[in-house]
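Lay summary

Proteins are chains of building blocks that fold into shapes. Our project writes down both the chain and a compact code for its shape. Here are two examples, one after the other.
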Amino acid sequence: MINLILCGGCGTRLWPVSRTLMPKQFAKLFDGSSLFQGTVVTNSVACESQYVISNAEQYFLAKDQLSELPECGHDPRFMLEPVGRNTAPAIALACLSLDPNAVVLVSPSDHVIRKKEAYLKALEKAEKFAEEGSLVTFGITPTSPETGYGYIEADGENVKRFVEKPNLEKAKEYLQSGNFYWNSGIFCFKVSTFLSELEKYAPDMFIACKAALANAKKENQLLRVNYEDMMAIPANSIDYAVMEKSKKVKVVPSDIGWSDLGSFDALYGEYPHDEAGNNVNPKHIPVGTTNSLVIGQQRMVATIDLDKMLVVDTPDALLVAPLASSQKVKSVVEKLKFKKSPLTDVPQTVSRPWGTYSVLDDNERYKIKRIVVKPGKRLSLQKHLHRSEHWVVVSGTATCTVGEKIFYVRPNESTYIPVGEVHRLQNDGKLPLVIVEVQVGEYTGEDDIIRIQDDFKRS
């Protein structure tokens, strides 16, 4: 099988841990590992190769996390979307670039699967159905009347219908009936079967995807779709576009320890707990606190006499709520978007193809960053129209280009870049280069960058 890994979501339901530039699939929520890495490792056992479908903004973040997984033994292909159009176009574009006889396993990258052996057995059954010409969905055996999931009604292995997220009364009814499953969003099918059904039930999407693929840029293991072509594709989910209409759908009932981690309430159940029912966190000092989820790894968080509460502490935002109300986080995000706050998009530490930067202070007319450049990497040759910059080297040696001059700056040394001057920062050493950058000017936004040359082909 070929594993298609979907990485397009923005993950706002776990704000402020996840942001647009650090969605939940890439946040390292479990023992220093991300959900994306867990998906890659789990499916590499059963699949011959993997094909990552990602937003272009997160390509280098995904590549960095893959470099931390040498045990997987293969280098996945990538397809980069300039803008998301939901799951059906993403899957269709990938399938159109594959052998029609191949069997694909479609995996969301932001889910967790705890029962690995049961999962592998479910995959074997799904692959057999797929080879026979079925579109296979994985139905999760429900353990409670959840209202946050879609459901699948089945008659044995045959799917009767897909059901939207129900109210509590309906969810209880589905649980008691014994023939309803949670819709996992995991699918398995032969490429030719899926494309044939897509052409039958969503012909406009099929035609637009073929046109987009014909114009896409191919670079070895990388496929880049053009923005205009992507926008011309009708946006729709695989459920609505194909699965709910096809007569070839089968379900594999799956008790695999699955969760889509769609809320902090769900996340709480995935952590080990202390004797008082709180998640184990060395940065949390509980006094009379019980059954609570406290997330924060930088500063110490103390709580007193809390029960069933949620506390999420990040460097630039703090969330406090009853754990049962964690689904309302999306309302906070909506309010922040209305205020045009960068807190919905940018975490304190942002990954770039050359390394990372962390915003230490951001005020009117100045911004202070900590910049880490990987060995052998360099930033784009660029200039700014509204700000000057001061670079102070903390560790490593910086190769600096300022105007026509190229020179070295060593620890405890600094340099200055005037407004409008062409410049570049480069690390020719074998260890990470760390600098503190002070930006001063009337505007210090990230869009005040004019790139003249760039190793990573960013415009």
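And here is the second example, written the same way.
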Amino acid sequence: MPFRKKENGDIDGEMADDLADDLADGMTDAAEDEDDVNLDDLPFNELPIEVQSKRLPKRPKSRRSWLSKLLIITLFLSPFGATAVAMIPVLDPETGWRLFHMGGPQTTITVPGTERELQEEIARGVQDIQDRDRAAQQAANAANGEEQSAEDIAGNLDGVSDLIGTPGSTDGTGGNDAPTPEELAALIEEEGSLDDPIEPDPLRPAPLPGLDEEGSFGRIPRIGDDGTTPFAAYKRPFELPEDTPVVAVMLTGVGLNEQRTETAINDLPLNISLAISPYARDLQTVAREARAMGHEVFLELPMEPADFPLSDPGPRALLTSLSEGENLVRLEWLLARFPGYAGLVSRQGSKFGSLDSAIRPVIEFISRTGLMYVEASGSGVASYGAQLAANAGTPNAIGNVIIDDTPSRRQIDNRLAELVEMAKRNGVAVGIAQSYPVTIQRLRNWAFRLRRHGVVLVPVSAISGQQVTPQSADEAEAARLEAEEREREAMAEQAAQEENAEPADTIEN
């Protein structure tokens, strides 16, 4: 019913109150009617949610339900389990080693540790067995009133000879002459054990007065007023044995890694020479500690290789693209790095060392300083720089074998065996090696049993001048002309390649 307005425009209040009462009565009737509804008469989908949930049939949990819950729990716990397994080798290395090697060949199930520790454990076990057998044999002989024969002694020493290396085996020693049991026993007693620490034999502290002068970047070596050269003053004293093959080893890259440097200084035989990198930190300390131990030290001389810039010799390397003056300035910077080195070792300089205009001024400068020049290319052939040094009367040597061009134990042992065979053929051989941990370990084992094969380990300085024969004046001039011709041909070829090269695409093109 529409509201009527009074004459003054207000709504009729009585009619509005009546309408509100009627609406309230209707809503009350609707609620009462809803309470009177029987839920059993309604369809299931029209029932309230809580009623539907109560009326759903209750089924027992199926296997799929349990598996899904188990999968959820497994996925939740798997990261913790994986972390716990990964921590086993950290908390208990032996248990971790056995766990991760379970099911492998039986030969690998051993006490974990370094190869040296394993060899020592085997050696001790074999030695114990031999001692018991020897004691039993001696007791039996004493009871019978008999003395041991040479065959018995050889039989007792068979196990030891197997441990220290059999002649002809690929253990890095080479050689086919087997020592007699008596000689072998004497060598074992003389050389001691591989575990014995190396006794220091200090060299004179450097620098020595009168053997250096002020350069552009610090003190650099020079020949003393009395004619004493830095090479003669700083090398390791050693007299070559007569009629005996000798080998020398130069270990390069010393000083770049603190732990490897310490191992090389303390664990390697003193006759192994150490070449210190000019880019190492605290060079003076490294050189001082090496000389205090008894090693002679050399300075690495970085030069431009044939595949430059693919192989980068470093920021202060001698380059063919620089002028003679610039290379000599860089050489002075290198020479002033630290005192006490006996000579210089060329690094990578296959290209720089083959050009007369590049290498000749450097060799002349080295000759004036009284240092040794070592060509470390490993080719075994006298390079042009080594030949120039020999012609000038400068102490020199060339590397015959790169020992660890492939840094694996088998390859290193093969190279060492090749080095020994070369020494037996030529009387002298030089090996070049990097300061890798595996190289240091194999060098120590190899040097320990080297003497029994008739070869002596000597410092690199001891074989100076024995590999390169100086040329006569005519031969030296012919070699110079030949080197200049090769240099002109190389420059012409390089210019032709640059001329024929297509210009690179640029924004301007």
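What can we say about the second shape? Residues 104-113, 153-176 have pLDDT under 50 and may be disordered.
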